[in-house]
Specification:
Layout (H helix, E strand, L loop, with lengths): L4 E6 L4 H17 L8 E6 L4 E6 L2 H17 L7 E9 L3 E8 L5 H13 L5 E5 L2 E6 L2 H13 L7 E3 L3
Antiparallel strand pairs: 1-7, 1-8, 2-3, 3-5, 4-5, 6-7
Helix pairs in contact: 1-2
Length: 165
């Protein structure tokens, strides 16, 4: 009987890295000349997996997001997994935006991944397991081809491959 090989497709954000990036962004905002005397804040809620950006107006809010995004990218945090909410007015004539951190693969994206692998006509089986997708095959070469195909297509979240056996 031939052995079957498999790997898992996941999409996770490392919260310690997000925390470090938020702290670096706060420090940079505190030191920048264009933010002197203005209200600009970044709050991280690790339990709810959300970031809240607060600033005086939409322009400053976008500047805060640019600083944070730069720090996240330098720390290899996938910005693609962050869903920006609407900009809403807040207390004290400020504006606020809540950014949700996507942990795991959403069910729609998981279905797209499985459908994409079936459309390739490769000899692999894909199964959705909670917030990840397990891809298995009797051939390691087929699994490598499936990884390449998944890397080439955009599913709306950053994909990571692990648990290769």
């Amino acid at each position: 009987m031939a052995a079957t090989y498999s790997f898992d497709v996941t999409s996770n954000i490392e919260m310690p890295e997000v925390d470090n990036a938020v702290n670096q962004a706060r420090k940079e905002i505190g030191q920048r000349f264009d933010f002197k005397g203005s209200i600009a804040a970044i709050d991280l809620d690790q339990k709810a997996s959300t970031l809240t950006l607060t600033a005086e107006d939409n322009f400053k809010l976008e500047s805060v997001w640019d600083v944070l995004q730069t720090r996240l990218i330098k720390r290899n945090v996938p910005v693609k997994n962050m869903k920006r909410g609407d900009i809403e007015p807040a207390a004290g004539s400020t504006v606020r935006q809540v950014i949700t951190l996507q942990q795991g693969i959403p069910i729609e994206a998981a279905k797209d991944i499985v459908k994409h692998l079936k459309d390739l006509k490769k000899k692999v089986q894909a199964a959705i397991q909670a917030d990840q997708v397990r891809v298995s095959s009797a051939s390691k070469d087929e699994l490598q081809g499936a990884m390449q195909a998944l890397r080439a297509k955009d599913f709306g979240v950053a994909l990571q491959f692990g648990n290769y056996r």
